[in-house]
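Technical annex B. To support the medicinal chemistry partners, we prepared a structural model of the target in complex with coenzyme A, based solely on the information shown next.
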Amino acid sequence: MAQRLDSTGLTFRQDYFSDPAGWAALVCLLKDIFGIDIGPLQQLGGPDPTSMPFGWFDAEGEVAANISAFALPFVLNGRIVHAAGLQSGAVRPPWRGRGLYRDVTVKALDWCDRQGFEAVILYTDKPSLYEAYGFRAIPLHRYEGTAPAPSTPAALARPLLPTHAEDLARLQSLLKGRSPISTSLAVTVNAAMFLINTRLDPDIRISVLEDRQAVIAWKIDEAGRFSLLDVVAAEIPPLAAILSGLKIAPAFVEVLFRPDKLGWEGAPQPLESGTRLMLRGLGDATPIFPAMLSPMAEF
Ligand SMILES: CC(C)(COP(=O)(O)OP(=O)(O)OC[C@H]1O[C@@H](n2cnc3c(N)ncnc32)[C@H](O)[C@@H]1OP(=O)(O)O)[C@@H](O)C(=O)NCCC(=O)NCCS
């Protein structure tokens, strides 16, 4: 157990994203530790402008340890919670066990408290790492059920390519004006995560239903199993219109958020695998109805 901080040979930097070398060093850390590349965010409108990274840098300019906070307002049980998210938490192997992660976590949480955030959320595969700071895991549920009868669409959906300037601008404008996808649990904006998530999983399809002014994030597997990941729109279209617009007629559907705005009911299924969503603050609040944050909001 690391009781004291040993930061010999390292320099602490906060709020360093405006320095291209600092940003590049974080991209490199996340590639090395998690195998994910957030570099393309620069072509997708840049990192979340509210980001506040806390990092220890070595003499070569590499990030040895980091955690980043950012504003992440979300809806919980019908109310908007003024929350922050924590992401990009990692320490390079040679620097582990020196208290560096505890140090950046405490700094980030202090910053969140000083900013007046009423809650902090994060995803992790190591829940015990955060329990000491007052985080608790929130149970997550997806929904499954038979598909609704198709409705006649005014127009068919077309694929939207965030790498194309016009499509990116359209998506960014819809993200700005979106309604939360559920009244139980949903982010309110979080454009940067939606955009980078379109790049991190090649199976995610992004389609636009122009007549509904809605962007649909979805997947379909080889067996024809349809998963709805997210809908970006000021007014959420019914699931029947989404399926008709996508011109697909699956027997079963899976919805990866509470479908209370979709005009469709499925059965909630607990999410057993994957990372856990953890919440700090708000007493013992938890979603009243089974719910989850859309995977497009995952960070
Ligand atoms: C998890 C990780 C960040 C810990 O880094 P570290 O520099 O060794 O952490 P510290 O020395 O600051 O230790 C902080 C605390 O976490 C505990 N800890 C370390 N690794 C842990 C693990 N895998 N699971 C649970 N607790 C852990 C330490 O015992 C210490 O507890 P203490 O404050 O009671 O003394 C690092 O191993 C890592 O980057 N792993 C890969 C990426 C990752 O898992 N990121 C975080 C999860 S989202």
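Notes passed to the chemistry partners:
The longest strand covers residues 63-71.
The pocket of coenzyme A is lined by residues 1-2, 33, 89-91, 96-102, 124, 126, 128-129 (CB under 6 Å).
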